[in-house]
Amino acid sequence: MTLPRSATISETVLTPENEQEAAALVAACAAAARPLVIRGGGTKAAVGRPVNAEATLSTKALTGITLYEPAELVIAARAGTPLAEIERTLAERGQMLPFEPADARVLLGSEGEATVGGLAATNLSGPRRIMAGACRDAMIGVRFVNGRGEVVKSGGRVMKNVTGLDLVKLAAGAWGTLGLLTEVTFKVQPKAERSATLAIDGLDDARGVDALNAALGSPFEITGAAHLPAGLAGERARTVLRIEGFSPSVDYRVGELRHLLAAYGPAERIVDAAEARRLWQDVRDVRFLAEPREHAVWRLSTVPTAGPRVVAAVAGLGDARFFFDWGGGLVWLSVPAAGDCGAAMIREALAPHGGHATLWRAPADIRAALQPFQPLAAPLMRVSEGVKRAVDPAGIFEPGRMYAGI
Amino acid sequence: MVLSRARREDAVTTIAFPAPDAAVLGRREAIIAGLARLLPAEAVITSEDERRAFETDALTAYRQMPLAVVLPSTTEEVAAVLRFCHAEGVKVVPRGAGTSLAGGAIPQEDAVVLGIAKMNRVIDIDFVNRTARVQAGITNLAISQAVAHEGFFYAPDPSSQLACTIAGNIAMNSGGAHCLKYGVTTNNLLGVTMVLLDGTVIEIGGAHLDAPGYDMLGLVCGSEGQLGVITEATVRILRQAEGARPALMGFDSVETAGACVAAIIGAGIIPVALEFMDRPAIKVCEAFAHAGYPLDVEALLIIEVEGSEAEIEDALKRIVAIAERFSPKALRVSRSEAESAAIWKGRKSAFGAMGRIADYLCMDGTIPTGQLPHVLKRISEICTGYGLGVANIFHAGDGNLHPLVLYDINKPGELEKAEAAGADILKLCVEVGGCLTGEHGVGIEKRDLMRHQYSEVDLVQQMRIRGVFDPAWLLNPAKVFPLDGRVVQ
Fold this sequence. Notes:
Chain A is an alpha+beta fold and about 400 residues long.
C-alpha cells in the first residue's frame, strides 16, 4: 500500500492529517482489500462483534469545530474533535446537544476521550431522548469517506432539508461500517433556565413505569423519566421525572404533576440541584450497573409499558439487576456473563412487544460467539447487505462489527 | 411550485420527461389484463376520463397520462401489483393524495400509478405508550382527529394536511409550521411496513424508539417513493399543549426582523412557530383575512408560544422585552381566541390569497437564518431582473423560505421567466450554505438543479443506495436524480 508522505504510521495505526489524506488511505486499503477499524477516542471500542482488521484508522488528527452559529442553533466539527470540547463550547453560550450523550466509560470501564465521530457512529442518546429526539435526530449533516475512498457529503447546516436521500441518518448508528465520518453537523438546543426532579419512592416496576407514562402523556413536557428498582439509588425503589424550562413554568408543572400523580404516592422534589444533576448523569451513564464488572450488560428498547414485563420474563437468568429509562422503553439489564448471557431468553421475551436487545458489555469471546446486535429479519438483512455493498463494496470498514457480512 | 388561476393549455414548460418505452405502451392491454387478475375490478382504472384525475399533482403545469391506475386495499395487493410490474418491467409511480408541490406524484405515460388512498384506516391507537398505527393512505389531519378526543395530536402539520397522506409525508419527509419545536416527519416516525418492487414486504422499526440495524427509517423518509411503497406506519402522538397564543410584530427593515429572531433564539426561547412575511405578502394577506396586520412595515413576525395561560404570559413577556430592543413599529399580543385565529388565518391563507391576484411559483429553499437580509435582497433583485414581482413568506426559525414568484400565465414567456427566476433563487440558497428544498421535496421540479447542491460523487453514492432497492429504476424513476448520468446496476 502506498501512503501519502505526511501520514503517520505507528504499528498499524493510520492517522490522516486531513480529509483528503483519509480518502487516499481508504482508497489504498480498498485496493488492497485491507480491512480497517475506525478509532476515535476508543471509549466504545468494546461494543459489538470483535473485528479482524489489518490496520486502525484514527481520527485523532481530524479535529476542530468548523462552524458554530448560536443564533442558528447549529454546530459542526471534524470527527476527531473531543465531545467535551463541543459541550464546553456550547455551554459557554448557554446551549447543549439536545440528546444528552452518555459517558460510555462509566459502564464499559474504558479510557480515552469520546469524539464527535464516535458519538454519531453509535447514535447514543441519553434520558432527554424522549423529549428532544435521538442523536440521529440532531444530526443534520455529515461528510464521510466511503469504501471507494471518495468524500461524500449529505445534509448540510440547515435544519430543514429534504434534498435527495438522507445519508446522514444512515451514517448515524452504523458503527463505522458505512465509512469514515470526517465531519458532523448537529442541531443544538438552549439549555433550560431551570431543572426540577420529582421522585416517588417505593413503587414496584410496573407501577413505577405506569406513573412515568401518566406523566409522559401529560402536556408538561417531561425531559427525563426513569424507574430505579430498590437497591440501585437507595434502599427503596425511586421513580424519577425531570421537568426543564423557565422558572415559573417549571414551578407550575411540578405542581400539576404532583397532583396528576397523587394516586402513586407523594412526589417529592429533589431540592439539592447537584444531587438531581448527579442522579440524571448516573441514569445517562448507567452507573448503577457498572458493578459488578464481570456481569454482561444488555440495552433493550421496547414499548414503554412492556419494559417491566420483559424484565419479569427473564427473571430466570438469576442475579439480574436492571433499571428503566425513557418511561420504561429503555431497559438496562445486567446478568451473569455465562452461556449466551440470556440472549435467547431476552429476545424471546421482547418478541411479543417488539423491540431490540443489544449486548452492550461482555467479554470479547462472548461477543464473538453471540449476536450482540439484534438479529434482523431476512428481508431487512438483505437490504442492509445491499446498502453496505453500495457504500463499501470491498467490505473494508469494520467488517462484521454489527452483523456477519456487513 | 404552484400554478394558480387558469392553466394556459399551451404553456411551454421546461422540465423534461424520459421518452416512454414504446414496447410497454404496445403491451398496454396485456398489462391491464394482468393487473385485473390481481385486483378487484373497481381497483383498476383504465378509461381515459378516469385516468385524467391522476395525470398531475399540485404541480399542475406538468401532466402525463398514466398507462393505468391501480387502487389496492391491502399490503398483499400492493405486493402483488409490484411483483407483477417488476416481472413485466413496467414503471410504477406511487401516489398518496397527489398534493406534491414538486411534482413527486406526476405519472409517466408508460407507468402504472399505484394509489394507496383506499388504505386509510387507523389500525391501533396506544395512548399510554403514545403511538398510532395507521394504514399509509390516511390523511395527516385524520391521524390528529383520531386521537384528539384524548387530547393528543400528530405533530408534523404541512399546509396540505387536510388532504395529504402519511405515505406522502414519509416520501417527502414533510414539515409544517410547528417543526421548530416538534421536528419533521423523520423525527416522529417509529415504524413502517414497506413493499419493495419485487414484492418483498419489509417491516422496519415498530412502536419502540430507535430501530435496530442501519437507520432504514431515516433512509426511507424523504426518498420520494423510489425505494418502496409504504403501506402502514407507526407514528408518535403527543399530548397537546394546554394552550397557544401568538404575538405579532412589525419592523421597518428585514434586517431588524432577522436580528430580533436571532435574539429570541439566542435568549433560549424556542417558540412553537416563528413565521415571517415581507411587505408584499402582508398587503395581500391583510386584504384577504383582515387580521389587523400593520401595513406600514417591511417585515412582519408571527411568534406563537404554548403552555398554560400563565406560561404563555411569561413567555410572551420575555419575547416582547427582547423585541422592544429592536424598536418594532407594531407589536401586539393576541388577547383572545378570535384574535389568534385572525392572525393565523392571514398566514395560513397566504398562498390562496396570493393566488387571487397573481399566478405564482412557490419555492422552498432553506438558508442559514443569518443570511436572511442578503438573501431577501438578492431574491428581490433576481425577480426584478426578470420583470417579475415576488412576495416572501417563510418559517423564520429554521430558515425555510417560501418566496412566491409572481407572474401572469396569460403573458407568453412569463411562466418560463418565473421558472428561471425560481431556479436562480434556489441556486442562491445553496450558494449561501442552504439547500434546494426544505420540505416540499425534489420531485421533477428541482431534479435538474441537484448538481448545484451535490457533487457527482454525492449523487452517485445516493443512486447506488437507491439501486439496492430498485436496480432497474422502475419506481418513480423520472424524479429526484437528473436524467443523465444515472447509475444503473
